[in-house]
Design a protein that fits this description.
Largest sheet: 9 strands, antiparallel
Bound molecules: 5,6-dihydrouridine-5'-monophosphate, zinc ion
Strand content: 15-25%
Number of helices: 6
Shape: globular
Length: about 350
């Protein structure tokens, strides 16, 4: 018998191999998000911001008077570049030295403009830097993790629009899991998991949030966070540097539309952690087998009901598996119901 999606059920995440418990019967009547009064916009320049052009950072370095995207080496890197190869082989206290580098990427000199508020050319410039950094660091490291932590709720205290890049010799656990699952899908089903997902989601349409000729944003069937989205290319591509001029332009446009919807949902600068997954490099970079890979971005926003009410991953989630009341289909419907064109602050 087929699963009744109106009753409690579990959904499988083929990328991670995890499960999510969905409890739609607890959702009750569909609710509108409460809208709180918009928070005051930050100024375009903040003399106390360590990321604004011309300002001094905590470590004493002075930012140049940059006028586009600005990348610098993190003054407090979590990783060190020159690490000896060391391993403690121990069944209980196993460890290895980890080598890598950390960079900060300022999306714009304007302190007040987050991604949805940047012009398309500004978002396009960020994409070009993401691609160039991937190419440069991929030649030296096994994995290039590009991400953005946005909003105080996600532990980011500075509203200046910025992201980070961590390049590591090893593959992060999530990347390693995806690599294994994408590879297995190709072997078992003779196809690309995420291209097949895009085709099926477009046909079903109920979880689609944004779509253009090249890209698709969905609340995935297996989403754990209330308004989690997955940004997928509609063509085969393993890494960001491979994107053509047109594909970068269409990516800028879907990023702007998706993040505009996010901000409009609760009329707040929507917090999230987002990041790109792409085919890792080495250790076998000389003969890389990356056909099973497909470039994609995850958005993990914590909000549930309003600008203040967040979802906590606690209790059952920490001890068993993620659980949600709001169905992914309803979340996608709510994101479709707000504008992807006009930002609430415009
Ligand atoms: P988040 O706010 O997204 O955590 O990023 C800020 C990063 O900027 C953080 O990793 C770095 C911090 O180490 N930073 C500098 O490199 N220089 C500074 O002067 C302050 C913050
Ligand atoms: Zn600033």
């Amino acid at each position: 018998m087929a699963v009744d999606f109106a009753r409690p059920h579990r959904r499988y995440n083929p990328l991670t191999g995890g499960w999510v418990q969905v409890s739609p019967q607890r959702m009750g009547r569909p609710w509108q998000g409460e809208v709180s009064p918009p928070d005051p916009p930050p100024p375009s320049y903040d003399p106390a911001c360590y990321l604004c052009p011309g300002n001094t950072r905590v470590g004493g370095e002075v930012n140049p008077a940059y006028d586009g995207v600005y990348v610098f080496d993190n003054d407090f890197p979590a990783l060190a570049e020159d690490q000896p190869v060391e391993t403690n082989h121990d069944p209980l206290f196993h460890a290895e030295a980890s080598a890598g580098l950390c960079r900060v990427i300022c999306f714009s000199p304007d302190h007040s403009k987050s991604l949805p508020q940047l012009p398309l050319a500004g978002i396009r410039a960020v994409i070009d830097v993401w691609a160039a950094q991937t190419e440069e660091l991929g030649a030296r490291f096994g994995s290039v993790q590009i991400f953005e932590n946005k909003g105080a709720m996600m532990g980011c205290s500075n509203p200046h629009p910025h992201g980070q890049i961590w390049a590591t010799a090893h593959w992060g656990l999530e990347v390693a899991r995806e690599d294994q699952n994408l590879r297995q899908y190709r072997e078992w089903h003779d196809g690309s998991m995420l291209l097949d997902t895009a085709t099926r989601e477009i046909a079903a349409s109920e979880r689609v949030v944004e779509i253009n000729d090249d890209w698709l944003a969905i609340v995935p069937f297996w989403a754990a966070w209330p308004f989690e989205t997955l940004l997928l290319p509609r063509f085969a591509v393993q890494r960001m540097p491979q994107l053509t001029t047109d594909q970068r332009a269409s990516l800028a446009s879907i990023l702007k539309a998706l993040t505009t919807r996010y901000d409009n949902l609760f009329q707040t600068s929507f917090p999230y952690s987002m990041g790109w997954h792409q085919a890792p490099y080495g250790p076998d970079s000389l003969s890389p087998d990356i056909d099973h890979w497909q470039l994609h971005a995850h958005f993990y926003p914590p909000l549930l009901r309003s600008a203040e009410v967040r979802k906590f991953m606690v209790g059952y989630e920490m001890l068993a598996e993620p659980q949600r009341d709001l169905t992914p289909e309803r979340a996608a419907e709510m994101l479709r119901a707000v504008s992807g064109l006009v930002h609430y602050r415009a």
